Amino acid sequence: MGSILKDVELKENIPTTILFAKHIEFLIDYGQQKDTYETVMTDYLKMSGMYWCLTALELIKASPFPKNDVVEFIKSCQDPECGGISASTNHDPHLLYTLSAVQILCLYDSLDAIDVEAVTKYVASLQQPDGSFAGDKWGEIDTRFSFCAIATLSLIKKLDVINVDKAVEFVKSCMNFDGGFGSRPQSESHAGLIYCCIAFLSITGRLDIVNRDNLAWWLCERQLPSGGLNGRPEKLPDVCYSWWVLSSLAILGRLHWIDKNALKKYILACQDLESGGFADRPGDMPDPYHTLFGLAALSLLGQESIEKVNAAFCMPQSVIDRLQIQPQMLK
Amino acid sequence: MHGRLKVRTTEEQRLLKEKENQKKLVAYKQGMAFILSTRKKDSYDPEAFAVSSQILHANPHIYTLWNYRKESILLEIENYKDKEEELVKFLEKELDFTEQCILSSPKCYSSWYHRYWVLKNHPVPNWEKEFKLCAKYLSVDDRNLHCWDYRRLILNKTGLCLEKELEFSTERLNANFSNYSSWHYRSTLRTLDVESLEKELNLVQSAVFTDPYDTSAWFYFRWILNHKEILEEKLQEVLESLKQLEELEPDCKCILMAKCWIMDTLYVKDEDQKDDINEFYQKLKQLDPLRKTRYEDAIKQKNS
Ligand SMILES: [Zn+2]
C-alpha cells in the first residue's frame, strides 16, 4: 500500500543563497530582448510580463528601466473607446492587463499618465448582475477577474463605482467543501484562485466569510517533503504556488503553519545558477513570472535583503503604504 | 512557463533554431499585420481568417485572435441569417478547429472559452457531443480543471440529472480513488441527509482503507464528518474502524487526524479524553514535522 507521492528531490549542488546580481541581469535581459520570435510570441501577456519584471526588480531594490519608456508604452495600450488596457499594442483590452498596467503605474507613482476615469468606467462596465466580472466584453467569467477588478479599483481609489456587496456574494458562491475557492461556483479549489479570492476579500475587508481553519489546513497541506508547495492535492511543487499559498496563509494569519526553512530551501533551489532567474522546479527553464513569485515568497518568509511585499497586491509594501491602502489581514 | 526542462544545446543547434525562428517571426508579423488590416472592415475575410487559424494553431494563447474570430463569426451569423444549414456548417468547422487547439494545449483558457462561446451562438448546439468530448479529455487527464469547468458550463445549459451525475462521479472514483477532482465534484452535487451521509461515509471509508496515505479522500472524509446530522452511533462506529486501520498503519498521520476530528466532536466536554487527544497531536508533530506549529496551535486551542 501507499500511493506514490508526487514531489521532487533536491540535489546536493543547489544554490543556497539569493543570487541577486544574476537575477538583476536576467530581468534586464528579458526586458531588453526586442524582436525575437520568443518575445513576440509572448506579446499576448507583455503587460503582465513587465509587471513581473519591474516588481521583481523593485523588490530587490534595482530599477534600471527608463520610467518614461514604460509609461509611454502603457499609454499606447489604453483603448480610447472603452478605456481598458491591452497586453500590448495591437492586442485587445482585458482586465488582466488593465490591472498589470495600473500596478506598474502605482509603482512609478504615475497614475495620471493614463485616463483613470476611463479605466474606472471600463472595470465597472464588466460587472454582471450576479456580482461577477467578465474579463472583457466577450463575457468569460472567472474569480480571477473579480480580483483584477477589485484590485484595480482599490489602487485608483474608485471602489465605490461597483456593487461591492454583490461582488462579495459571487466570490462567496465559489467557496467549496474544502474551504477553498475555484474560478466559478462549484469549480474545484486551486491555490491560484484561492489567492485571488482571499486577496479580494482582504481588499474588500470581508475575510469574515472565510472558513479560516479549514482553508488554512488545506493550504498548509500543500507543503511537500521537498519543502516546496503544490497548488492542488497530488500535484508537483512549484515556485509560483509558494506565492499563492503563502500569501493566502499570510492574509489568514496562518503563515506559521508551514515549515518556512524547508520552503526557503526549495525556492532557493529553483534559481538558475547560470542565467539567473527562478524556475517552477529545480532544473527547469527560469522565467520572470516565477522570478517575481519566488522573490515575493522569500520576502513573506522574512528575508530582510528583499523589500517587504504586500500579500494582497503582490506589490512593495512601501507603495501600498504611499497609496494609504490597508487590506484586511487576520492576526 | 511550466515544466519546461532546461536542455543543453550545441552552438550549431542554437544557430539552426535561431534561423528557423527568424523565419517564423517574419511569417507571424506578416500574418498579424494582414489580419489587423482586414479587422476593421464590416465583412468577413476568409483569407485572414485562415491565417489566424495557422497562428492560433502554433499559439492558442493569443486571445486577441480569438476575439477577431468572434467578430468574424458574428458577421457570418448575420450573413447567413436565412441559411441555417450553411451557418451550421461554418460553425461546426469552427468547433473542429477549437478541438484541435484544445488537443494541442489542453490548459489554454482561450480555446475552451471560444468553444463555449461558439456553442452559445449555435442555432442547434449538440450538447451531448460535448459530454463525450469531456469524457475523452478526462480520460487523458482526470485533473484538468479546464475540462471539469467546461463540463459544468455545459451542464448549466442542459440541466443536471442528479442520478446520472452521481453515477458519473462514482464511476470516476472507482477508476481512481485518489482523484481529488472527482471528490470535489461529488461534494457539489447535492445537500446530504442522514441517509445519504451514511452512504457517503461508507464510500469514503473504503477509499481511505484502500490507501490511507493518499490525502484526497481524507479531505472529503473531513467534510462528511463536519455534517451535524451524522448520528453519534455512526461516529463511534467510524472511530472504531479507524482504530483498526491504525493498527495496520501506525505511522499514517491522516488516520490520527481523523481520530482527532471525531473525538473533538464526540467528547467536547469530556476531560478524560482530552489527554488522549493531546497525545495524538504530540504524535502528529513527530509524524509530520513540516506542520508542527499547526498541531501546536491545536493543542493550545484544546487547552485554553
Ligand atoms: Zn508555476
From TrEMBL, chain A:
Transmembrane segments: none annotated. GO terms for cellular component: Rab-protein geranylgeranyltransferase complex. It catalyses: geranylgeranyl diphosphate + L-cysteinyl-[protein] = S-geranylgeranyl-L-cysteinyl-[protein] + diphosphate. InterPro entries: PGGT1B-like, Prenyltrans, Ptb1, Terpenoid_cyclase/PrenylTrfase. Its EC number is 2.5.1.60. GO terms for molecular function: metal ion binding; Rab geranylgeranyltransferase activity. Residues 21-315 form the Prenyltransferase alpha-alpha toroid domain. The keyword Repeat applies. Gene3D superfamilies: 1.50.10.20. Its cofactor is Zn(2+). Keywords: Metal-binding, Phosphoprotein, Prenyltransferase, Repeat, Transferase, Zinc. It is an enzyme of class 2 (transferase). It holds the Pfam family Prenyltrans. Binds 1 zinc ion per subunit. Heterotrimer composed of RABGGTA, RABGGTB and CHM; within this trimer, RABGGTA and RABGGTB form the catalytic component B, while CHM (component A) mediates peptide substrate binding. The Rab GGTase dimer (RGGT) interacts with CHM (component A) prior to Rab protein binding; the association is stabilized by geranylgeranyl pyrophosphate (GGpp). The CHM:RGGT:Rab complex is destabilized by GGpp. Interaction of RABGGTB with prenylated PTP4A2 precludes its association with RABGGTA and inhibits enzyme activity. Interacts with CHODL. Catalyzes the transfer of a geranylgeranyl moiety from geranylgeranyl diphosphate to both cysteines of proteins with the C-terminal sequence -XXCC, -XCXC and -CCXX. Belongs to the protein prenyltransferase subunit beta family. This is Geranylgeranyl transferase type-2 subunit beta. It comes from Cryptolaemus montrouzieri.
TrEMBL record, chain B:
The keyword Transferase applies. Residues 74-101 form a coiled coil. Transmembrane segments: none annotated. It comes from the Eukaryota. This is Geranylgeranyl transferase type-2 subunit alpha. Belongs to the protein prenyltransferase subunit alpha family. Catalyzes the transfer of a geranyl-geranyl moiety from geranyl-geranyl pyrophosphate to cysteines occuring in specific C-terminal amino acid sequences. The keyword Protein biosynthesis does not apply. Its EC number is 2.5.1.60. Keywords: Coiled coil, Prenyltransferase, Repeat, Transferase. InterPro entries: Prenyl_trans_a. GO terms for biological process: prenylation. It catalyses: geranylgeranyl diphosphate + L-cysteinyl-[protein] = S-geranylgeranyl-L-cysteinyl-[protein] + diphosphate. PROSITE patterns: PFTA.
